[in-house]
Amino acid sequence: MITIGITGTLGAGKGTIVDYLQKEKGFDHYSVRAFLIDEIKRRGLEVNRDSMTLVGNDLRAAHSPSWIVEQLYDQAQASGRNCIIESIRTPGEVEALRAKQNFYLFAVDADTRVRYERAVLRGSETDHIDYQTFLANEQREMTSDDPNKQNLRYCIDHADFRFDNNGSIDDLNRQVEQVLGQIMYRRPSWDEYFMELANTASKRATCDRGRSGCVIVKDRQLLVTGYVGSPSGLPHCDEVGHLFRKTIEADGRITTHCVRTVHAEQNAICQAARRGIALDGATLYCRMTPCRTCAMLIINCGIKRVVCERKYHAGAESEELFRQAGVAIEFFHDEVQQYANQ
Asked: Which pLDDT band holds residue 144 (cuts at 50, 70, 90)?
């Protein structure tokens, strides 16, 4: 899955790029602008540039500089499809999305007068302004020392790809098409390749609370796979519901686990045992930090490296066990994830 963030000056053509990616390439669209407009209306404010700046800054200050785009990114992840997040405007948003897998930032710009005329023709809620107001609005959003506030200059300067939109729509589309050819068909690393196989295995999972998959690899050869589900012959959560049990974690936090299922890591290790496959020196790929029980099994079967897509919020004890046992653990992303319905 590819995530493209779009930034740029006012009226530069962000929406034109979105239209092309949606209609021609099948990308899903998530908009910071639309997110803010919904919040502005919920608060009973007038929809204009001042309200968008006020509400956006307020939400970022109340939560985090990247909170808005994090909400949109989580929605996009749930879809499992290529997506666009439009209107990236702050350094915090860029830095948060930069930590995600397969994220690319596009920036688009054009001459000021050209952009103003396009904005007038667009005629959205925030575009009914004169030229001087247009310039003032843009200048206000171009730079800031506050990570919660708009800093278009920073976003544009840190883009992976920049587009000049002083020509026709076809000219811009050709630029975008050329860049897509570079990023959509990039050869994945070995870790990316095996993590994608683990994610594919997760689609076989039979517990909708935490659909996860696992693959175990040695010398770049796939040994076994596993996914979360009930023991063989027993009813699945997807069929009869969950069987929950509360657990007090090492940090004192109380979490709720489904005890009907066998974890993906456990199932993969069981498959190896049944087939007489030795796992000494192997690498295990999984969705998030293995639980304590899985960690102990991983250590005892001789696996020496664990690669996770994300951290699990209650995974500190497992990380410490791996450290003591000399098992390397690595993460694609440092973000912390919880199981659904927890």
From this structure: confident
Helices (H), the chain: 14-25, 32-42, 49-62, 67-79, 91-98, 112-122, 131-142, 152-157, 169-183, 190-202, 237-240, 264-274, 292-300, 316-325
Structure tokens at 103: 């994220």
Q: Which residue has the tokens 């690319």?
A: 104
The one-letter code for the residue type at 211 is R
pLDDT at 126: 61
User: Which residue of the set 138, 265, 309, 319 is catalytic?
Assistant: 265
Taking the CA of residue 95 as centre, how many other CA atoms within 13 Å lie in the half-sphere pointing to its CB?
12
- Active-site residue flag, 265: yes
Region 287-294 average pLDDT = 92
Give the integer Cα–Cα distance in Å for 134 and 156.
19
Q: Which helix (H) or strand (E) holds 12?
A: none
pLDDT band, very low/low/confident/very high, at 342 (cuts 50, 70, 90) = very low
